Automatic annotation (TrEMBL):
Name of the protein this chain belongs to: 8596_t:CDS:1
Pfam families: Glyco_transf_49
A GO cellular component entry from the record: membrane
Molecular function GO labels: glucuronosyltransferase activity; xylosyltransferase activity
Record's subcellular location: Membrane
Keywords: Glycoprotein, Membrane, Signal-anchor, Transmembrane, Transmembrane helix
GO BP annotations listed: protein O-linked glycosylation via mannose
Transmembrane segment boundaries: 33-58
Membrane topology: Single-pass type II membrane protein
Length: 440
């Protein structure tokens, strides 16, 4: 049947109208059939994909959830990894994202590698070295007789060996190591170049939290000893710490008491045993030092140490900054780098993430300035400098409280025993909110 279109103005007959309706019905039926075919194909494909996904999920091997997923290094300190070809700035960009590129882009790891390979469960001391403190590094090595990770700071804009400053520093270091084989045996030396002040390039460098992190990052043992400059261990300190390795494996921290000579002390002999310490404290020559507190009155608590048993720090304070030992891996937070030399910030983060702090009764450190003119002695700060540092630190520990609280909640550990310290500190911080605004 042929459909004839009437001319303009001609009426459409009933037979023509019936034919149009018949054609439209036929087209509609064909459309419904096509839609049904498409729907059926969609259902078949969906069932196939769903079945394949379910079978794949049920048959794939199980793997640990994220919190227990093993975290490993992405480089090899022995030099066999292709990632060693990465420039230092790229490698440290995430880890040290808050630091100036003047630091992160001028690092030479393992400039001198210790000839003795340390045991994994040993303790590595972090050390800071400048050219006029090589003798202090030798003294520390002779006392420690174990692995040391030292950052050697050169006051230069880069590590270009054509720079006379860098060339002279490397020559002096080579000469020093050739004269003292014990240092070459135990010390890994990593070089950092940066001018401390562009207005006064002759200014000498001071240790910072960044230097601590670099020394820790390249240490070759499982445990790190954060040791202040001009602080000396006894010959038994290392073995005493290793005796309590279980505390460190439990993600706790070991605080090693530091004793210093009182002003006007008459007996300046270096004590060798615990009994010598007690005798010299009684005679008024020595005192237990916690920075920011009077001698024998800090959180380390001399009365508790005197009892001769391992004890836990219960009266923690956010400014507490002893010489301490912790695990090296990422279970221990890194030192925040917004400060210069502020070890209290390092310990505070470890404490609020669940680490208990234990004090050893059979070992000790002695604070003694063999070089009273050393540029590393703490300088006198102006009133404004003290106020700025105080407020900056106040903001930090409040920020850290909130940051780690969110982490505990995210990991479902808010009600775990590890969150006890954080809850205590957050409660104290929140009830004193705003106090730092008026402290000076």
């Amino acid at each position: 049947m042929t459909l004839r279109i009437p001319e303009k103005g001609s009426p459409i007959s009933l037979s023509q109208t019936s034919s149009i309706k018949s054609i439209l019905r036929t087209l509609w039926r064909q459309r419904i059939v096509a839609l049904k075919a498409i729907a059926l194909l969609y259902i078949v494909v969906s069932l196939f994909v769903f079945t394949t996904s379910i079978l794949g999920y049920l048959t794939r091997p199980s793997r640990p959830i994220y919190p227990n997923f093993p975290l490993t290094r992405t480089y090899d300190t022995n030099g066999s990894s292709p990632l060693n070809e990465m420039d230092t700035y790229t490698r440290f960009y995430k880890m040290h994202s808050k630091m100036s590129s003047g630091f992160t882009n001028n690092i030479k790891q393992y400039h001198k590698r210790a000839s003795k390979i340390p045991e994994k469960d040993d303790i590595t001391v972090t050390a800071f070295v400048t050219e006029n403190r090589f003798e202090d590094l030798k003294r520390l090595t002779e006392l420690w007789q174990g692995p040391i990770s030292a950052t050697f700071h050169i006051s230069s804009e880069s590590l270009d060996e054509n720079d006379p400053i860098v060339q002279q520093a490397f020559d002096n270091l080579d000469h020093f190591l050739s004269q003292h084989p014990i240092v070459a045996k135990y010390v890994d030396i990593h070089v950092i170049a940066n001018v401390v002040s562009f207005e006064k390039p002759e200014m000498l460098a001071r240790p910072t939290n960044f230097h601590l992190n670099v020394a820790r990052f390249f240490a070759r043992t499982d445990f790190i000893f954060y040791l202040d400059h001009d602080t000396w261990p006894t010959t038994k300190t290392r073995e005493e710490i290793r005796r309590y390795k279980k505390l460190l494996l439990n993600n706790d921290v070991i605080s090693v008491p530091t004793f210093t000579y009182k002003v006007g002390a008459t007996n300046l002999q270096i004590p060798r045993a615990r009994e010598d310490i007690i005798s010299m404290v009684r005679s008024g020559d020595l005192g237990l030092q916690d920075d920011g507190w009077e001698l024998n009155r800090g959180p380390t608590c001399y009365a508790s140490w005197q009892r001769g048993k391992v004890y836990k720090i219960d009266d923690f304070e956010v400014h507490y900054r002893p010489n301490f030992v912790s695990k090296k891996d990422n279970t221990a937070p890194w030192c925040t780098e917004r400060f210069d030399d502020n070890k209290a910030a390092c310990l505070y983060q470890m404490y609020i993430t669940g680490s208990d702090i234990w004090v050893l009764p059979e070992t000790f450190l002695i604070r003694h300035n063999f070089n009273p003119k050393s540029h590393l002695l703490r300088p006198s700060e102006s009133k404004w400098a003290k106020a700025i540092n105080s407020r900056l630190y106040t903001k930090f520990y409040r920020e850290a409280c909130v940051h780690y609280a969110r982490q505990f909640i995210f990991k479902g550990e808010w009600d775990s025993p590890r969150s006890i310290h954080l809850k205590q500190e957050c409660n104290r911080v929140l009830t004193n909110w705003g106090k730092g605004l008026v402290d000076a």
